Amino acid sequence: MTTAVTSPKLDALDALESEAIHVFREVAGEFDRPVILFSGGKDSTLLVHLAVKAFAPAPVPFPLLHVDTGHNYPEVIEFRDRIAATLGLRLEVARVEDYLADGRLAERADGTRNPLQTQPLLDAIAEHRFDAVFGGGRRDEERARAKERIMSLRDAFGRWDPRKQRPELWNLYNGRHAPGEHVRVFPISNWTEVDVWRYIRREGIELPPIYFAHSRPVFRRDGMWLAEGPWGGPRAGETLETRTVRYRTVGDGSCTGAVESTASTLDEVIAEVTASRLTERGATRADDRLSEAAMEDRKKEGYF
Amino acid sequence: MAGTDSAQPRDLLRFATAGSVDDGKSTLVGRLLYDTKSVLADQIEAVERASIDKGLATPDLSLLVDGLRAEREQGITIDVAYRYFGTATREFVLADTPGHVQYTRNTVTGASTAELAVLLVDARNGVVPQTRRHAAVLSLLRVPRLVLAINKIDLIDYDEAKIADIEREFTELARSLGFGDEAVQVIPLSALVGDNVAERGERTPWYEGPTLLEHLEAVPVEGPDAEAPFRLPVQYVIRPRNGAEARSADASLGDLHDYRGYAGQVASGTVRPGDEVVVLPEGHRTTVSEVRTADGPLAAAGAGLSVTVLLADDIDAPRGAMIAAAADPPEITTELDATLCWLAEKPLTPGARLLLKHGTRTTQVIVGALAARLDTEAVSYTDAPDQLEINDIGRVSLRVADPLPVDAYARVRTTGGFVLIDPPTGNTLAAGLVGDPLAAVPGTRPQG
């Protein structure tokens, strides 16, 4: 039962885990009202697992927040609610559909709701006076994210200014902010997609079943397999067919595609991700293909 | 990131690049990512598309690393970026630092967490003033290992004699900055062609050393401050109180009603149950009764590990306190002599009232006299300046409001470093190093 840590250097996953735990504890020590963004996807599920480890045997001292586009996979919503209940954590849900219903937001012509998440997110942060918002963003996901700090200041409008970032020195994170401003915190900044999967395997972390191969009616659009749904698919000329697929990322159904895959175990998923010649976003996220700086532009507006 | 999925645990090497703007740093970083298959097809396609849009005949690989709109528009690199790649034996976190503007700020940021730095020179120019400045900053920050990458050797026709001259000059420079010979590796390479980066160059048969990637994979790297005395800045006190619920989750814990765990990341050294420790700044002595993580109790925990420590006696150790080896504690002081790397546009003048963050404690500080400014090219201290400006490095005395447990930065990097913060804006102004980490380097002692 007693484990010796005698090696002079931590292995890579232990080092990444320790860094993330350090970040969680810094925020708990320095902020008044932190919150963890939790969608039920693999990165935010990993984040919640790390938070549990950071404060064990005490409970996680933060609530959870999900910005729900209304275009979710039912398996993921079931998982989201079950995990929050199991851990006894309060789950706040900000709904894009509430904004569409009363006219504060309008549906986009392309049907995607990912960009519409920004306003409900910023409103929820303001309403609950959250001062530190944990996200599962990783710097390996996208070029603009490679420049992101682990603790990143957002102004009163939620905006990110890449030219005015604070240097991060040693492990001394500076979370100071004025009233109305908040800090986005990315404890798994230094993890890669493969690290995430290896750690999920090592820790035995449960995920929604759609991350593993399953049979699903899908149609082809812009080189991706999209699931049918209330977001307007398939359109005329698009044919529904049943394929064996899985998801690499979980997001809004209108712009998150599945990949053809027979990987049904963690070992098979890791082997597939390791061999893949496509990044997870390039393979399955339409919103990042909109323009060369799509992610940067959304981040500047307050998106993650 | 692609790479081999080895079942073996691999370690993590954090390293930084440094070099002037035209030394080919982006190409080298692009080459490392490309040759380790860390650049995937859709990223390459995106770069090809963007290059065609810009009217270029061949893909511009710097677009792989310059992520921001303004960087691509202006063809410059704005800020430190972090890159990831892995091989069968090791994972790498690369702090990719831009070379031209604010080089001190960027190099200091990258070097603060780096266990190794790759310093680039252009083989046509050899060691230039910027090389000396970068090497001085890397020495000051006490980056343990250095690689000199002599790049663009294809442009000097793989001239062995010229490369040997650069190596000789740099080795001398590194020695004068206090780097031991075993800590320095010189590698002639061409990032553009790929010679000696991941693949051995056919045109350098006389070069018997490792490729850059072989060196990065094999270089022995100790954990952070593993040999230094035990230090644990207390981050957070864990008090579950609700015993019944938590007990069911972890049978090894027993009744949690009186559980009080001191959580933090081991900053240096090793801690074991039974160790005699002192809780600072108050100075209460006690012994460690348990060291644990969420996975259970540990026989020992080394530097870098986030742990929870339980103490034998009921001692108050709030966030901001430090638990340290009783036999070898840090100095407790309100007067600090320190070296500052000034990172902000707003200059530093004596008398300034700022905030200082050291470990998990933030306290007020009044800046005293500026004793000296470092000439980073000559690596010697000049006369006392009126103020420190952005990218300046200077020696200063500080008076802090609360007694701080500090180590000399030259001895323990983690507990010898601090940051200065601007109270009205919250901005980080300076990287601070306790003492004078260059003191061991001949000719660099401050005058007066």
Automatic annotation (TrEMBL), chain A:
Please name one Pfam family that this protein belongs to. Answer: PAPS_reduct
Q: Does the keyword Cell wall biogenesis/degradation apply?
A: no
Q: Where is this region: Disordered?
A: 284-304
> Does the entry feature the keyword ATP-binding, yes or no?
yes
Q: Which SUPFAM superfamilies match?
A: Adenine nucleotide alpha hydrolases-like (SSF52402)
Top-level taxon of origin: Bacteria
Q: Which family does it belong to?
A: Belongs to the PAPS reductase family. CysD subfamily.
Name-wise, this protein is Sulfate adenylyltransferase subunit 2
| Organism listed in the record | Pseudonocardia autotrophica (Amycolata autotrophica)
UniProtKB/TrEMBL annotation, chain B:
For molecular function, the Gene Ontology terms on record are: ATP binding; GTP binding; GTPase activity; sulfate adenylyltransferase (ATP) activity
Q: What gene is it encoded by?
A: cysNC
Cite the PROSITE patterns for this sequence. G_TR_1, G_TR_2
What processes does the entry annotate via GO biological process terms?
A: sulfur compound metabolic process
Q: Which residues form a coiled coil?
A: none
Please name the Pfam families in this protein's record.
GTP-eEF1A_C (PF22594), GTP_EFTU (PF00009)
Q: Name the domain of life this protein comes from.
A: Bacteria
Q: Which organism is it from?
A: Pseudonocardia autotrophica (Amycolata autotrophica)
What keywords are annotated for this sequence in UniProt?
ATP-binding, GTP-binding, Nucleotide-binding, Nucleotidyltransferase, Transferase
Pinpoint the Tr-type G domain residues: 10-225
* Classification via SUPFAM superfamilies: EF-Tu/eEF-1alpha/eIF2-gamma C-terminal domain (SSF50465), P-loop containing nucleoside triphosphate hydrolases (SSF52540), Translation proteins (SSF50447)
Which protein, by its recorded name, is this? sulfate adenylyltransferase
Q: What is its EC number?
A: 2.7.7.4
